[in-house]
Amino acid sequence: AGAETVKRAVELDLASRFQESLVCYQEGIDLLLQVVKGTKDEAKKQRYRQKISEYMTRAEDIKKHIEKEKQDGKYHKQIRIEENATGYSYEKLFQEYLTEIVSEVWVEDPYIRHVHQASRHSLYNFLRFCEMLIKGPCKVKTIHLLTSYDEGSGRNQQTSGLEEIKQSLSNYGVTLNVAFSSSMHDREIRFNNGWMIKIGRGLDYFKKPQGRFSIGYCDFDLRPCHETTVDVFHTKHTKKM
Where is the MIT domain (predicted)? Predict the structure, then answer.
């Protein structure tokens, strides 16, 4: 398993997919270290140690390269979510960027709207996103939401729904600031540790469940997705709204 993981790390490394490559190198090194512990043959042990040393050096170089890209503001990772793909809950997508120092979050999404609106976007997605932030490991204190007003009769439900989320978040010591814009089109999420995530479809990239009692209704890792692209950047200066 260690050899397979390291082989994958090398492939990702050659394809310049450094972030994913680093994860595989680290996992592979851990597995190979376990193999060394269980090996009695000294010659084999020596060969393993030599390889592990090489992989550790390469992993350290990649780590430095990623850090430099972050510092220079050049870091960019792209994830393509295919039509009907599963395994892309908010936790899976955002967790690695939600470090303990994250205390402030900005969400720009024009379609955080009423749940019964014909619009496919809903307040529930935003609520689910907020739930993820509260579970940690980050210590979020402030969430800024910039969205657009619902049209017609949905506006009252939209504002009352957001007010309810605001009240509920305050029970956890989190402040929600909501602002509205009639001209916004961009969808992006920013954390005050410098990470910025742009999702083509905003927070609403999940398909409707087939029924209220179908798999994927509760667990979003099992919910099929619409096709979309996720772009991840690191910026030294996260702009304020």
Answer: 1-71
